[in-house]
Design goal:
The protein has about 250 residues and is mainly α. It is about 45% helix and about 5% strand. A hairpin with a 2-residue loop joins strand 1 and strand 2.
Amino acid sequence: MLRNSDLQGFKIEGEPEKLITTLFADDTTVYLSKEDSFENLQAILEKWCKASGAKFNVKKTEILPVGGAEYRDYVVRERRMNETQSRIPDDIHIAKDGEPVRILGAFVGNTIEQIAIWTPIVEKINANLNQWEKGHPTQEGRRLIVGMEVGGRTQYLTRVQGMPKEVEHTLTKMIQKFMWGDSAPLVGAATLTSPISDGGKKLLDIEARNQAIELMKVKGGRRGVKTKYVPPRLETNNTPREDKPT
């Protein structure tokens, strides 16, 4: 219904079709141009809900303005995409600059800092490792815990968001401290992270893991994997920059 509607969505250079929505499981992301009406979108969604028996969770609905700083501020302040439209309902959250919005596990937003996104995850990992430490695990147990807590909690976000070097260094030090405490390491990091067949312990190497993730991204692109990507430069009729809404 959305793709066949009169909503303009985003027009991307080189793409014959407009970008109007992306769907994954029960998550729906809709892209509106400055000329689109939020009321029309609501009407379409309400009609779809009646036909399907589904219901949108308004409390989880978030709007992320795009375009120039002045226009984004207008949308947040006036709660509308242009002066001819009605106000967006107050129970729908509109993200301000610096406020990340989570979409399918990734965090997007305007002028957001990567460190701020990663801080809660690093703090969670640190708290969990401290809790595991109380059980006095063996070296093999510690290796498995590192893989589960550090590797498991960071792999997906690294894939979709990227990991800042500061976070990478923090986690590397965290792993070293968990493996050896405050004592000097008895075995070099290169040995610990080497395969078991080479006499190592196959301990998680965050830097190498992150490099492998970036490499897989490149390989995926070269194989012609088609993904929906909204480039930073959209046609000006989609996302106004510093001009006032008209």
